[in-house]
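User: Second chain of the day. Same drill as before.
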Amino acid sequence: MSDSNAGMIVGASAAAPWLSVIMPSFRGEQWIDASLKSLASENANGVEVLLVDGSPTRETVDIARKYSGSLNLRIFSRPDLSSWHSKTNYAVGIAEARHICLLCVDDIWLPGRAEAAREWINSSPKAVLHLAPSIIIDRFGRRLGRWRCPLPTNCELSDSFVCEHLLVQNFIASPAPVFLRDAWLACGGLDETLWYTADWDVWLKLAASGSVLYHDVVTVGFRIHSGSLTVSGNRDIGEFAEQMNTVLNRHLPQITGDIQKIERVARASIAMNAALAAASAGNYHHLPSAVYKALGLGPVGMVHYLRDSRILERLAPRVRAALTGAF
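Assistant: Same format as last time:
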């Protein structure tokens, strides 16, 4: 048995899928039933689901098996793949569809997701990246707010235009985009050295490789909870800042606009993100300096920061979830 088939369980078959859904998992038994149920509810032909599970136990895989009759589902037990990055890169490499989307086991599809994705692809099949807003949900699945991208809708966007906005903040919820598999492979996929910012880095790499479209249609739910990476990860402010600065330094040279202005706003955003991450672990010492740095941008810079960082849309749902005990 080849390595690409190791641990594979084949569900309902479908010839020549038009979309591959990549699901990296580690101890996802708490969430995966809701996630797969949301996929199965679409009853969409031509969609394959690749679950790559690295759990030491069988709970996640056993729950997923229940959907082998209603989904074109391939399950790979790969405890040797230790990160979500390696699981995702592996699955994209063996996916059969030309277009790909990601779905973490704690996120969900909303009704109409498959139809919307197919319309996007049919309207612009050569677009490298189709973006869309998402709904932020709590651990019970309750809606907390809408998370949008600061981009014009339904028109092809240039690489520099998208990257100028995206460099300020990763405003893309990972389950929302649909992208070309070949473009992902060509740009190297997820950088496995970036534990916190690999998704931000890959969206920038994809955006730089071709046209991007933003569709103002909400089709996914992005779940926030105490076990998610942004909550449970390392709270060392230096490491957080280093992860974000690595991505900024890597992609800033490709900008054709006012690099100095964009960099000032992006650095202020990094300082705020790192301070908020530290504050979530009880360390509030860095917040005053981060706020001071943001205010130092001036009125125009602050508008730029608030627009592209989406900080209010990202922060308000988390505060609401914490206050209601739904984190």
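The two ends are 43 Å apart (CA to CA).

User: Great, on to the next one.
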